[in-house]
Amino acid sequence: MNFHFVMEKKVDEIITVLKSKGLRVTSQRFAVYNNLLHRNDHPTAEEILRDLNKNAPTLSQATIYLSLQTLRDVGLIREVLLQEGVCRYDANVSPHHHFRCLDCGAIEDIPWETFSNLSIDKLPTGLRVEQYEVIVQGKCDRC
Amino acid sequence: MNFHFVMEKKVDEIITVLKSKGLRVTSQRFAVYNNLLHRNDHPTAEEILRDLNKNAPTLSQATIYLSLQTLRDVGLIREVLLQEGVCRYDANVSPHHHFRCLDCGAIEDIPWETFSNLSIDKLPTGLRVEQYEVIVQGKCDRC
DNA sequence: CTTTGTGCAAACGATTTGCAGGATG
DNA sequence: CATCCTGCAAATCGTTTGCACAAAG
Question: Is B16 in the same domain as B63?
Fold first, then answer.
């Protein structure tokens, strides 16, 4: 299947990355990734599914979970855990922090540079750091 | 029911706090809180249940979830979300950060002072901070 | 044409709920 | 003794799985 009609740079990544891992570029995986690329609200699996199937049926319930797993495994998307029992997804895989509104539940990205002064050299001994992020909770401008 | 035979200061808190909210001090709520106080491995609901029912049946499956909810609502314990689909609990409600080992899944507390240099005054406008924590992932000393 | 992915429906695990009986204050 | 809590079992929610068919390369 040829997805090159979409001319955005980011979108080409899915083709490159999946192929490089020997995985197939299917319309379902493409739709999920593309949907996630064009929204910034960190949706759940179910929210993506509802959005994609709004007009015509695009993919099934089982496939959205498999697609999200695959996209996560190849590093195209990442999971965001800020709320009990809710797994959200983010197509922005470059390092950044997260804010969650305690009232409305909205999630916003916080630029990496915001905490550029954060130093982690005083960690308990024996721990080797591979990644970290700051989770901020509070109230957003609308609440 | 009289729980004062346990002489630790922390344990008295559950009586004070529950009573002040008009909630009852039951043996089940007490057992859950006490169990959580005496372990530092951030267990899941199911792990607490298994531990408490190891010898004699102490509480039921439904009750552990209700008790954890209640204890969270009154601020005696807090949830820790570091892993997809897994809700863990922590009786340490004073501010601190968390480390998770990507190999064995072990979770360790990181003292608040570790990131004392962290400043959050450059946040995107309109966000009011109420709490924050740093999530660190990597490898622990055993892995 | 071979292999991997999808759809469907059933299975599954964790958590929640309704209701009758039991314990708390 | 009135009310709140617990136990039980059934219900529910999100996610996973098995299998036959469909699509990708």
Answer: yes
Name which of A140, A120, A117 is nearest A129 in CA terms: A120
Domain assignment of residue A65, yes or no: yes
If one counts the domains in chain A, the total is 2
Domain of B23, in residue numbers: 3-90
Query: What would the pLDDT profile of A18-72 be if each residue is shown by its tens digit?
Result: 999 999 999 999 999 999 999 999 999 999 999 999 999 999 999 999 999 999 9
CATH of the domain at B62: 1.10.10.10
Would you say residue A100 lies in a domain? Answer: yes
**Same domain, residue pair A53 and A72:** yes
CA of B84 to C1' of C5 (A): 24
CA–C1' gap, B42 and D25, in angstroms: 47
- Is residue A143 in a domain? no
Residues 6 or more apart whose Cβ sits within 8 Å of residue B29:
B14, B18, B67, B70, B71
Identify which of A14, A93, A71 has the alpha carbon closest to the alpha carbon of residue A4. A14
Does the pTM surpass 0.90? The reply is no
Q: Answer whether any strand D atom is within 7 A of the Cβ of B56.
A: no
Question: What residues have CB less than 8 Å from B38, skipping those under 6 apart?
Answer: none
* B110 close to A (CB below 8 A): yes
B68 nearest nucleotide via C1' and CA: C15
Collect all residues of chain A within an 8 Å Cβ-Cβ radius of residue B134.
Answer: 118, 120, 132-135
A133 phi and psi angles, rounded to 5 deg:
-155, 155
Would you say A104 and A140 are in contact if contact means Cβ atoms under 8 Å apart? yes
* A121 φ/ψ angles, rounded to the nearest 5 degrees: -90, -5
**From CA B24, how far away is CA B19, in angstroms rounded?**
6
